[in-house]
Design brief:
22% of the residues lie in helices and 30% in strands. By secondary structure, the protein is of the alpha+beta class.
Length: 297
């Protein structure tokens, strides 16, 4: 059970890294659009973009009806840049971050379900957040220093224990539900997950090796993502088209990624750039799993 829960967490982090990597193949891709798209706007709020100029996301202001401008308008984001050039800037800014927070859903190949993730992580290897599978409970995760802390709710434990003997499930729930546990980050059970809490590793993967086949990147429209000004890029690879939203104020960070793949659907939002990660050790009683013997959580 412990290994199964950890493998699910690992899958989420790996897929999140893969989503960030959507920027990688764009740098040398040929841009199919000119840099003359008008500044039409839409809004995004944890979902897909809405093309209506009167739509608003929380905290955003709608563009006045009928507003239009030429490509040379001073308020047009990334004026004169191709989609590939914008993508290159976003990649540089995102991979230069000291910390970030990922929120959204990604597919889990092992279960065929969907992993919900809300995780902040930094270059020191610290992380804090929650993960769930198919809406069936969640697990809280903290890694700070050399220790990994996990707390499972009862729904999560029961869902992950399907197929196990009832007595084993009840014993597991009684032992772990709602209780913080700890493991050494260097231990066999936690080492891989601890490694993927490291932002250095995630962003290294996002940077890629340079061997990826370039994909076609085209410019979209100005929009907002949860109230933050952004610009839309479309990454096309064969019949699949992913959507990327890049910040237009401050650093051109990646704000959101929406997969266009039927095989690997999902969407992730990226916030909290360069903000402290709340990875403090839990207070109160913590169960040391490394000190237990014969426990198969």
């Amino acid at each position: 059970m412990r290994r199964r829960a950890h493998r699910t967490a690992l899958t989420a982090l790996l897929l999140a890294a893969g989503a960030t990597a959507c920027l990688t193949g764009c740098q040398s891709g040929q841009d199919g659009d000119s840099a003359s798209d008008g500044p039409a706007r839409s809004t995004v709020s944890g979902g897909s973009a809405t093309a209506s100029p009167s739509s608003t996301a929380p905290g955003s202001a709608a563009t006045p009806a009928g507003a239009s401008a030429s490509a040379s308008a001073p308020d047009e984001p990334f004026a004169g840049l191709t989609g590939a050039e914008i993508s290159e800037r976003a990649l540089k800014a995102t991979t230069g971050a000291r910390s970030l927070r990922m929120t959204g859903s990604v597919p889990d190949d092992e279960s065929g379900g969907t992993i919900e993730i809300d995780l902040a992580l930094d270059r020191r290897g610290d992380c804090a957040g929650t993960m769930g599978l198919n809406g069936q409970g969640e697990a809280e995760l903290i890694k700070t220093g050399d220790t990994v802390y996990l707390k499972y709710d009862e729904r999560f434990l029961r869902a992950q224990s399907k197929g196990e003997p009832q007595a084993d499930t009840e014993a597991l729930v009684s032992l772990l539900a709602g209780r913080w546990t700890s493991m050494s980050a260097d231990g066999a059970d936690a080492k891989e997950m601890a490694g993927f809490c490291d932002l250095d590793k995630l962003l290294e993967d996002a940077g890629g090796s340079g061997d990826d086949t370039p994909t076609k990147v085209t410019r979209g429209k100005a929009t907002t993502v949860d109230g933050k000004p952004a610009f839309t890029l479309y990454e096309t690879d064969g019949s699949e088209r992913n959507t990327v939203y890049v910040a237009t104020e401050g650093e051109p960070y990646l704000l959101r990624f929406e997969s266009g793949s039927k095989r690997e659907p999902g969407a992730l939002s990226f916030t909290g750039y360069d903000e402290p990660v709340p990875a403090a050790s839990p207070s109160g009683e913590v169960l040391d799993l490394d000190g237990l013997t014969g426990t198969s959580a």
